[in-house]
Amino acid sequence: MHETAVMERMQALLDGWSAAGDRREVFLRCYSMMTANMHGGIDRGDFSDAAWVARLLHRFAEYYFEALSQWEASPAVTPPVWRLAHQSTRHPDATVWQHLLLGVNAHINYDLVLTVHEILKPEWPKLPPGDRDGRFADYCRVNQIIADTIDAVQDDVLAPAMPVSAILDRLMGRLDEYLISRLITAWRDRTWSFAVELLEAADDETRNAIVARVEDKAMRIGSQISLGHDLSAEPQ
Fold this sequence. Notes:
The protein is an all-alpha fold and 236 residues long. The chain has one domain. 79% of the residues lie in helices and 0% in strands. It has helices spanning 3-20, 25-44, 50-73, 80-88, 96-120, 129-161, 163-172, 175-199, 204-225. The longest helix is centred in the middle third of the chain and has 33 residues, at 129-161.
């Protein structure tokens, strides 16, 4: 999927969801801002291997769209972590912070593991250690782009939907953005570790067990974000 097609598809969804008051807009608006800034980083030459980062970015977006299509066609077959994220947007008690973090959790702690594994799998066995380090270095450079985007997400996405977050931002300065950035960085570090485990797994049984662990971890994080509320159930 070409860069322009990805951004146009995101914008078309955002336009429709915004008009309908669909709170799936919260995560996707954040994600579209991150994606646009990632493309800016690629164009600026921020990465050692821009072509590899672009492939990773595009396949990552496809995982989001695939899960969304599954949800809209048959929620029961949607990955559970995405089922939780999408279902939460129908709950009147869920906050915009929960909508955002549940989406980020599903996309990073689940989709990104599978994406990194898929993109690296063809080359990993013959990739020299130095080149593996280069892949990881480019992967880590994304963390700075995320950190640079968080403040805009707070101002443009969260504050208009939840005015108390603007008050919090004034009281805490950049501390809340810093904490979110650190959280996402920690998630992405673990994601890479899981992807490497998958790459080095001896057989399909081992890989399936690792994917099950990935899904279980993401669901436990989702439960923590839900703060004890059953956001996966249909609202009454």
